[in-house]
Amino acid sequence: QIESLDKSLEDLLTRVDEFVGLLDMIRSDSSQVVNESIPQIYTKATEMRQIYRKIDKLEAFVKMIGNSVAGLEERVIKAETDLGAFPNTFKKILHTISIPSFLNKSSSSRQQQTLYEPPVLFKTEDYFPCLNEAPY
């Protein structure tokens, strides 16, 4: 019985040693996570915040460009309706036919009423100052 009890105690001590070894591994992994991984994660999160700000600025820029393009499209459509946008074949036919002078006067007076105003365009350099710098 003593031998059996001695063997059981040895098994139990072996298991306790294995358990202590597992606890030591867990402690070292935990300290590694706390001392190394968390600061790295924090650094990456800070970098990501800067990237998110850049993405937000880029989204605002794209929206501004979209609004500018939409405004220009509206002006083009208005100009086409005001001045009449005929397909090229009609223009060629009209140029070959002599148009009475009263038609010319009405079209010229209509053109004089609407003066061309160039649209206000943005400058890319205002939004991307690094484009002004010389390439490497």
TrEMBL record:
Name the domain of life: Eukaryota
The protein's matches in InterPro entries, at most eight in alphabetical order, are given as:
Cappuccino
> What does UniProt give as GO cellular component?
BLOC-1 complex
Name of the molecule in the record: Biogenesis of lysosome-related organelles complex 1 subunit 4
